[in-house]
TrEMBL record:
Class of the enzyme per the UniProt entry, highest EC level: transferase
Pfam families the UniProt entry points to: ThiG
InterPro entries the UniProt entry points to: Aldolase_TIM (IPR013785), Thiazole_synthase_ThiG (IPR033983), ThiG (IPR008867)
Domain of life (superkingdom): Bacteria
Source species of the chain: Massilia aquatica
EC id: 2.8.1.10
Entry protein name: Thiazole synthase
Pathway: Cofactor biosynthesis; thiamine diphosphate biosynthesis
Length: 265
């Protein structure tokens, strides 16, 4: 049985619950068959799709991702990867809503430049406000700035997704302190997005108190993507369990692990 199903520790986004706290991307795989294999190994329920790069019906003559990841089995999360201004991002997600039959859950990302792929926060805020007013449920890629995260939440975004490090870098969580500040203040789910490189990075994100982790390159770029997907599933689950259990306090002195009371002299 899935551990989350057993203890009912479910992830809720925009009023819908999910057993898995691992969200995965759908790009960079060898082919669509491997995409499906890795998704299954991850036991992911939310799959993000770059509308500008992946076919979900825009091109009837090309392979369609929805043939291997059908929307009646998965929550398809269209994203705006490749958009550098609010106008393009809003248009891209409006097109995605039409292709997906009116579904409103989307991932917004507006990039600042091609070198860093860092979020352009002024344009992100503009796009988020327009999308929320248009009835979208917006999950939003953002900087690890607690003030910006709060502004996005105040606009009405259903989840904030601060980067751990640069997209595709695999550098892991470079600023856990900022991430914790965002987690402590947030009233919506906080999911790490970008920078995860291996299973320990995912576990650390969850141990800090993140509600979930989204990744693509860390799985698709592994030597064995399907096996790595399974490792990430276990890491996210273990990190969540550790967070719920509560770690022991850190001390600046050794403490015997065995009882000393009543010991034989």
């Amino acid at each position: 049985m899935n551990m989350n199903e057993n203890n009912q520790d479910l992830l809720t986004i925009a009023g819908k619950t999910y057993n898995s706290r691992l969200l995965v991307g759908s790009g960079k795989y060898r082919d669509l068959a491997q995409t499906r294999e890795a998704t299954d190994a991850a036991q992911a329920e939310i799959i993000t799709v770059a509308i500008r790069r992946v076919n979900i019906g825009q091109d009837r003559n090309a392979p369609n991702l929805l043939d291997v990841l059908p929307p009646d089995q998965y929550t398809i999360l269209p994203n705006t990867a490749g958009c550098y201004n609010a106008k393009d991002a809003v248009y891209t997600l409006q097109m995605a809503r039409e292709l997906l039959g009116g579904r409103n859950l989307v991932k917004l990302e507006v990039l600042g430049d091609e070198k860093t792929l860092f979020p352009h926060m002024p344009e992100t805020l503009v796009a988020a406000e327009a999308l929320v007013k248009d009835g979208f449920d917006v999950m939003v890629y953002c900087s690890d700035d607690p003030i910006q995260a709060r502004l996005l939440e105040d606009i009405g975004c259903v989840a904030v997704m601060p980067l751990a490090s640069l997209i595709g870098s695999g550098m892991g969580i470079l600023n856990p302190w900022n991430l914790q500040l965002i987690i402590e203040q947030a009233k919506v789910p906080v999911l790490v997005d970008a920078g995860v490189g291996t299973a320990s990075d995912a576990a650390i994100a969850m141990e800090l108190g993140c509600d979930g982790v989204l990744m693509n390159s860390a799985i698709a770029g592994a030597r064995d993507p399907v096996r790595m997907a399974g490792a990430m599933r276990l890491a996210v689950r273990a990190g969540r369990e550790a967070f719920l259990a509560g770690r022991m306090p850190k001390r600046f002195a050794a403490v015997p692990s065995s009882p000393v009371a009543g010991k034989v002299a």
